[in-house]
C-alpha cells in the first residue's frame, strides 16, 4: 500500500494515481504538480516514457512510431510544448502565432533553451499518395499533374460523381462509406479512400461507424481541396506554424523535437521527478478496487520481479485500454458494461525500421533522387500489405546517425490474432523489403540494417460493440474519482494534442470542484478548438 502523507498540520495529503505515462498521463501529472499540492504517482507499463509518442532507438537511429506532428489548434497546447522545448532559433527571424498573439523569434533568442539539443525544429510537411506506381499530392489536388496521372476519363468521372454527391447526398449517413461518398463522391472514394482505409482497419468501410470520419477528417472535402490551393499561394512565403485558417489535414508546417517525440516526454518526466512526483516503471495494473461510486486503490504487478504493490489514492486517471480496465475492476461492472467492453476492438501496429544506402524510385519519376522530401508516403497499392512509409531523415536530421544513409519506417496495420503479427522479426523485415522493391521504392540490395517494433492496441476501432459505447461511458462517469483520458483511456482516436487536452480538462475539473465529466468527452468536438463550424473531421492516421 502506498504510504499516506500528511502536511505539517497533520492533514492528509491528497494523492492522484495515474495509469500510463503517455502524453495524457504525463500531462496530467505535470499539471497537478504545478497547479496543486496533490501528490502524484504515475504507473507505467513499459520501461520508457511517452507511450505511442515515445522514440525508439536502434543502432544510433531513432524511430517515431506512427509519426507525431507537434501542431495544434489549441493555444494552450502549443504554448505548453514550447515551454518544455523552445523553438530552435533560425538564421533568420521566424514568426509563429499562438496564444492569440504573433511572436517573432530571432536568432539571438536561442538561449531560452537549456541546451542546443533541447529544442523544437520547424519542419515542412510533405505527404503524398503512392498509387498505381505514381506519386499523387496529399491532399489530392486537381492539378495538371494529377489529371495527367489519373487520365481525363477518370478525372471526369470523379467530378461528375462529386456533383452527384452534392446534389443527391445519402441522407441517413450510417457508415464510413456513406461519410466518404457524401464528401468526395463515389469515384474519388473508391480511388483513394476505400482500399487504404480498409487496409488500416481490416474491415469494409460499410461496416465502420461514420463517427470515425466525424472524429478524424476535419472538414476535408473536394471543395476544401480547391480552396486549399488558393491558401497555399497566399501562405507560401509565410512561416506561420499556427496556421489556424487551414484544416489540420492541410497544415504545411509543424514543430518537431530534435530527437523525436520521446524527447518531449522524457523532458516532462524529468520535470515531474524534480517536482517530487513519482514515476514507477514496468507496472501492469491488473486490479482496480471500487466501493460504490469511488475507486479506492489499484494493484500493479512489476513486470520484471513479479512483485505486487497496491496504491491508494483520492483521484485516479486512466489511460489504459478500457477493455482491460473493465476486466481489472473489483467488483465487476454490470454485465452489459462488461459485454460491451469485451466487444471493443483495437487495431495493432507494426513498424519496420529500415536503413538504406539509397531509395530507388522508378526513373520516370521527377522525384527520382536519393532522398525524397516526404515525411509520409501513403501506400495505396492493393498488391502489398504495407500501409504507410515514413522517411525519418525528413522529420529531423538527428533521427539518423549517418546523414549519408536513408532511415525509413514501414508501417503495417493488423490484429494481434493475424498471421502478420505472429511473423518473426526476420520474416517481417524480409516482407517489408520485398514489398517496397515490388512497388519500386527500394532495391533490396540497398538494405543495410533493420529492426521491428510492435505496438498493440494502437488504434481504438469504431466497430465491434462501439455502437453501445455510451453504456460504458455512463458507468465510467458514475465513478466520481475516475478520470479516463487519452486515446485508449477513452476509446477515441485522439491525436496527441487532444489526449493532452483531456488531461488538462480533467485537472481543471478537479481544481474547480466540477464533478460533471461531459467536457472531457467533448475534447476534439468543441467548436472553439477548430476554425470550422462543422463537426471536426480527418482522414489519414497522422
Helical/strand content category: alpha/beta
The CATH topology of the domain at 145-226 comes to protoporphyrinogen ix oxidase, domain 3
**Radius of gyration over C-alpha positions, nearest whole angstrom:** 23 Å
Principal-axes shape call: globular
* Largest sheet descriptor: 7 strands, mixed
Unreliable segments of 5+ consecutive residues: 1-5, 97-103, 107-112, 362-368, 526-542
N-C termini distance: 40 Å
Relative strand content: 15-25%
Name the strands of the widest sheet in spatial order: 9-8-18-19-20-17-21
Helix content: 25-40%
Q: Any idea what the CATH architecture of the domain at 145-226 is?
A: Orthogonal Bundle
Mean pLDDT: 86
CATH class of the domain at 145-226: Mainly Alpha
Number of helices: 17
> Count the strands?
22
Compile the SSE list and pairings:
Elements: E1 15-19, H1 23-35, E2 39-43, E3 55-58, E4 61-64, H2 75-84, E5 94-98, E6 101-105, E7 120-124, E8 127-131, E9 134-138, H3 144-150, H4 152-167, H5 176-184, H6 186-201, H7 210-216, H8 222-235, E10 253-257, H9 261-274, E11 278-280, E12 283-291, E13 294-302, E14 308-312, E15 315-318, H10 322-328, E16 329-330, H11 335-343, E17 344-356, E18 376-379, E19 388-391, E20 406-414, H12 419-422, H13 425-438, E21 447-464, H14 469-478, E22 482-484, H15 487-490, H16 496-512, H17 518-521
Parallel strand pairs: 1-2, 1-15, 2-11, 8-18, 12-16, 15-22
Antiparallel strand pairs: 3-4, 5-6, 7-10, 8-9, 12-13, 13-14, 17-20, 17-21, 18-19, 19-20
Amino acid at each position: 500500500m502506498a504510504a499516506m502523507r500528511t502536511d505539517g498540520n497533520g492533514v492528509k495529503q491528497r494523492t492522484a494515481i495515474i495509469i500510463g505515462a503517455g502524453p495524457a498521463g504525463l500531462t496530467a501529472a505535470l499539471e497537478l504538480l504545478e497547479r496543486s499540492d496533490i501528490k502524484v504517482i504515475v504507473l507505467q507499463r513499459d520501461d520508457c516514457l511517452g507511450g505511442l509518442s515515445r522514440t525508439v532507438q536502434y543502432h544510433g537511429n531513432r524511430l517515431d512510431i506512427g509519426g507525431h506532428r507537434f501542431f495544434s489548434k489549441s493555444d494552450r497546447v502549443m504554448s505548453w510544448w514550447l515551454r518544455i522545448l523552445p523553438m530552435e532559433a533560425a538564421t533568420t527571424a521566424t514568426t509563429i502565432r499562438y496564444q492569440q498573439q504573433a511572436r517573432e523569434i530571432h536568432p539571438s533568442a536561442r538561449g531560452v533553451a537549456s541546451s542546443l539539443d533541447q529544442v523544437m525544429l520547424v519542419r515542412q510537411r510533405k505527404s503524398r499518395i503512392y498509387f498505381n506506381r505514381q506519386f499523387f499530392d496529399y491532399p489530392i489536388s486537381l492539378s495538371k499533374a494529377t489529371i495527367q496521372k489519373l487520365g481525363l476519363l477518370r478525372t471526369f468521372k470523379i467530378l461528375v460523381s462529386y456533383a452527384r454527391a452534392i446534389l443527391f447526398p445519402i441522407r441517413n449517413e450510417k457508415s464510413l462509406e456513406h461519410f466518404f461518398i457524401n464528401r468526395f463522391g463515389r469515384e474519388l472514394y473508391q480511388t483513394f479512400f476505400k482500399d487504404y482505409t480498409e487496409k488500416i482497419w481490416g474491415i469494409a468501410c460499410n461496416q465502420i461507424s461514420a463517427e470515425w470520419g466525424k472524429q478524424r477528417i476535419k472538414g476535408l472535402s473536394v471543395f476544401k481541396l480547391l480552396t486549399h490551393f488558393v491558401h497555399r499561394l497566399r501562405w507560401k512565403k509565410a512561416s506561420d506554424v499556427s496556421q489556424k485558417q487551414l484544416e489540420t489535414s492541410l497544415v504545411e508546417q509543424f514543430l518537431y523535437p530534435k530527437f523525436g517525440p520521446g524527447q518531449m516526454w522524457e523532458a516532462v518526466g524529468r520535470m515531474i521527478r524534480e517536482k517530487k512526483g513519482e514515476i514507477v516503471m514496468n507496472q501492469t495494473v491488473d486490479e482496480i478496487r471500487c466501493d460504490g461510486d469511488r475507486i479506492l486503490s489499484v494493484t500493479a504487478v512489476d513486470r520484471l520481479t513479479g512483485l505486487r504493490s497496491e496504491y491508494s489514492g483520492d483521484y485516479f486517471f486512466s489511460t489504459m485500454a478500457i477493455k482491460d480496465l473493465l476486466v481489472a475492476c473489483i467488483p465487476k461492472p454490470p454485465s452489459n458494461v462488461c459485454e460491451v467492453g469485451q466487444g471493443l476492438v483495437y487495431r495493432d501496429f507494426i513498424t519496420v525500421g529500415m536503413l538504406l544506402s539509397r531509395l530507388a524510385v522508378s526513373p520516370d519519376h521527377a522525384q527520382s533522387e536519393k532522398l525524397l522530401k516526404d515525411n509520409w508516403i501513403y501506400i495505396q497499392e492493393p498488391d502489398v500489405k504495407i500501409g504507410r512509409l515514413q522517411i525519418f531523415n525528413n522529420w529531423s536530421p538527428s533521427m539518423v546517425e549517418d546523414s549519408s544513409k536513408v532511415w525509413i519506417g514501414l508501417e503495417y496495420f493488423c490484429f494481434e490474432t493475424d498471421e502478420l503479427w505472429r511473423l518473426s522479426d526476420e520474416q517481417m523485415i524480409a516482407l517489408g523489403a520485398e514489398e517496397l522493391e515490388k512497388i519500386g521504392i527500394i532495391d533490396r540490395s540497398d538494405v543495410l540494417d533493420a529492426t521491428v517494433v510492435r505496438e498493440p492496441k494502437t488504434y481504438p476501432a469504431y466497430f465491434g460493440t462501439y455502437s453501445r459505447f455510451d453504456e460504458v461511458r455512463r458507468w465510467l462517469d458514475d465513478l466520481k474519482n475516475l478520470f479516463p483520458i487519452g486515446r485508449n483511456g477513452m476509446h477515441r482516436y485522439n491525436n496527441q494534442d487532444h489526449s493532452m487536452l483531456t488531461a488538462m480538462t480533467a485537472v481543471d475539473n478537479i481544481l474547480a470542484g466540477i464533478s460533471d465529466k461531459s467536457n472531457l468527452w467533448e475534447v476534439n468536438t468543441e467548436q472553439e478548438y477548430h476554425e470550422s463550424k462543422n463537426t471536426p473531421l480527418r482522414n489519414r492516421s497522422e
